[in-house]
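Example record

The entry below shows one chain as it appears in the dataset: sequence first, then structure tokens.
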Amino acid sequence: MAEPFAVRMAGIGVVFERDGQRFEALRTVSLELAAGAFVCLIGPSGCGKSTLLRVLADLVPIAGGEARILGQTPAEARAARRLGFCFQDATLLPWRTVIANVRLALEVGRPAAARPPRRSPEELLELVGLGARLDALPGELSGGMRQRVAIARALVGDPALLLMDEPFGALDELTRDRLNDELLRIWQETGTTIVFVTHSLGEAVYLGQEVVVMAAGPGRIHARLDLRPAKAEGGLGRDSATFAALTGELRSLLAEAGA
């Protein structure tokens, strides 16, 4: 029987120490996310959204609690290449072509343990609309194109969980809207579970099946807003009254969280 939850977090705590000072980044965070879901994380700056992603990616040690990704620890999931990560900056190697940057994910880590990908790097670049730019260098691409390359690179290992930390935050609004649509299409085609951090309420409502609202001081889960009923009624356009109402509800939840 398949694991119904892509993510299970129970009582997660994270503490950072620097120069003798102790900072509690996350306190007793418990969260379950269904496999195949698209979940957005919002909250005030410093509430631990990025730290939560890094816990799942096995990049930050926990001080307490337990995390599981499809039944595995984050370390086990990372070793099995079940994770993909997209940052705000595309972090492409400027001397490598587009196709070489995507292939990089297959060249590092533990290639002997990696199974052949379902889609080749070339197929993934077709998926993100860059099939004609395989030999371009990152400096020859727009910001939106570079993020498309980063998404293709994150998907090349067929991750069960794709973690995205404000990947479109530095883009202009029109490019951001287009990439929102592209990302939804990719999610529907791949079935990958996505956890997406954003500061944009509209982006959270447009992309997410569910929005998780975090509060700061220390970082914790404040509320969850299920958008599936509204979207099941035939979509949720950015200009609709329902979209505006849900965005307003998120704004109220953020105010309660102290944003």
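Notes for this example: Strands lie at 5-18, 21-34, 38-42, 64-69, 83-86, 161-165, 193-197, 210-215, 220-226. Residues 87 and 221 are 22 Å apart (CA to CA).
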